[in-house]
Amino acid sequence: MPALGQRAFCEWxxxxxxxxxxxxxxxxxxxxTGDDALALLCNTLPTGAILAVLILVFGxxxxxxxxPAVSLTFALRGELPWSTATIYIxxxxxxxxxxxxxxxxxxxxxxxxxxxxxxxxxxxxxAEAVATFGLLLTIFGCVSRRPESVPYAVGLYIxxxxxxxxxxxxxxxxxxxxxSLSDTFxxxxxxxxxxxxxxxxxxxxxxxILSRWLWRK
Length: 217
What we know:
Blueprint: H1 4-32, H2 36-62, H3 68-76, H4 82-106, H5 122-145, H6 150-164, H7 173-179, H8 193-214
Helix pairs in contact: 1-2, 1-4, 2-6, 3-4, 3-8, 4-7, 5-6, 5-8
């Protein structure tokens, strides 16, 4: 197993690439299209694709969590030490910020921004709980029976969830925080971040409970 420093670096770099893809493809989509539905499609496909690639690359090294909800879940299940989970989460949050800033620099936008895109309300909060719940069930189910399918299943799930959830499936506290610092197509106003994260954790807890029943070891 790689050293903890190497694993934390993988979590940092993988999350940075994920956010660069999410925000960068959103900027590109907005520049090239004048239609929100087409822009969302252009944002969706790179996000699902990069997730599959990143999990294939970093999965054997760090587990390729790239998501505090995933790291917390494995800690709750006793499959990841709490000290390691804490380091992973810090790396993920920092990596997300770096990925957003990299996207801004690539498109020659101001580095430091705050989003003004309002994403709030009961429907959005429920969507985040559902999105996170489904993402974690996808991971647990594949890990339990077909671990080699995790990269493709996660990429496909997020691709689908972009469209069937009202929130476009953030499903990731690190992503939510990072996207609040980008006033672009993928952004979320900082005022909406806390409620999104609470909803994501609610979906996470529900997934942990159900997974223990469905996939007992």
